[in-house]
């Protein structure tokens, strides 16, 4: 193994998972970020770990693996809490081929109007995204990983023949055998400093946070009108589509409407108050798929995914394996990052 570290750029849930899995394998890994862990897209995530039953697409298969890896991580990472609450879903948006015969009134007794036809997904769960990220980073450090937070990476350092050899962190160059770019929506600009055109989308969404009494929502509830889950401290999260809001006043109005929907949907929610309504930018490739793998030049590896929470465990595990063994993982084969340069070839397994 190289005496130079693997540098992971981005301390969101995906970057934290990659750093953890590298450290567990004994790699000399350094995790860097301009901010604090989970302060970017991860902080605005709903935290839903799940998949639609019957989804046999490559994305569905990766989501299924994602669930199993979260089960493993919950066992091996100290302090990591995964809440396997299940998800109660109904309506057109969340429809599937599964039987829609769940007893909604029993599963979510505070619903004002329980649906007559609903589906319960017992294997689904959720995590607090920031706390989960911090737990992964804590475990990575326990296995020898280093962290550098509060200083942005200004560019990737390349050799004359185009090999990525490290990063410029402020006024300092850090050498690396491999640089993993897991910087969310900032990944495109970083890759461009190495001459790689990473085609990405930045998909905005609004996250509304309410505060109310604990225990109103037992699990994840999702339908055509709203999605909601409740944290252990009583905080309710409700993700919403972005619709060209341009001011804090606009966002607050969205939050107030979400508050109205919530209080009308759950009994005992009259004391609920609006805490915040903020825009988060979900990173994804231009085709909407995750992008994980070699990005066209030696020494550069990309790990960008939506939904990052569900996929973080499987991506971190597989990416660490590819980086350290230089062999391809079949679970990532359909999710390679398109770029402006030809990808180098790894040995298939």
Topology readout:
Elements: E1 6-9, H1 13-24, E2 29-33, E3 48-49, H2 58-76, E4 87-89, H3 104-107, E5 119-121, E6 125-126, H4 129-142, E7 146-149, E8 153-158, E9 164-169, E10 172-175, E11 178-181, H5 187-192, E12 200-211, E13 220-222, E14 227-230, E15 235-241, H6 248-265, E16 273-285, E17 291-294, E18 300-304, H7 308-325, E19 327-328, E20 347-348
Parallel strand pairs: 1-2, 1-11, 2-7, 4-13, 11-18, 19-20
Antiparallel strand pairs: 3-6, 4-5, 8-9, 9-10, 12-15, 12-16, 13-14, 14-15, 17-18
Structure description:
There is one protein chain. By secondary structure, this protein is α/β, with parallel strands linked by helices. The protein has 7 helices and 20 strands. It has helices at residues 13-24, 58-76, 104-107, 129-142, 187-192, 248-265, 308-325; strands spanning 6-9, 29-33, 48-49, 87-89, 119-121, 125-126, 146-149, 153-158, 164-169, 172-175, 178-181, 200-211, 220-222, 227-230, 235-241, 273-285, 291-294, 300-304, 327-328, 347-348. It has a 7-stranded mixed sheet. A hairpin with a 5-residue loop joins strand 8 (153-158) and strand 9. Helix 1 (13-24) packs parallel to helix 4 (129-142), helix 1 runs parallel beside helix 7 (308-325) and helix 2 (58-76) packs across helix 7. The longest helix has 19 residues, at 58-76. Residues 342-349 have low confidence and may be disordered.
- Count of helical segments? 7
Structural class: alpha/beta
* Helix proportion: 25-40%
**Proportion of strand residues:** 25-35%
What shape does the CA trace take?
globular
Spatial strand sequence of the major β-sheet: 5-4-13-14-15-12-16
End-to-end distance: 20 Å
Largest sheet: 7 strands, mixed
The low-pLDDT segments are: 342-349
User: What is the C-alpha radius of gyration, as a whole number of Å?
Assistant: 21 Å
Instruction: Specify the oligomeric state.
Output: single chain
- The string of secondary-structure elements, in order, is EHEEHEHEEHEEEEEHEEEEHEEEHEE
Tally of strands: 20
Average pLDDT, to the nearest integer? 91
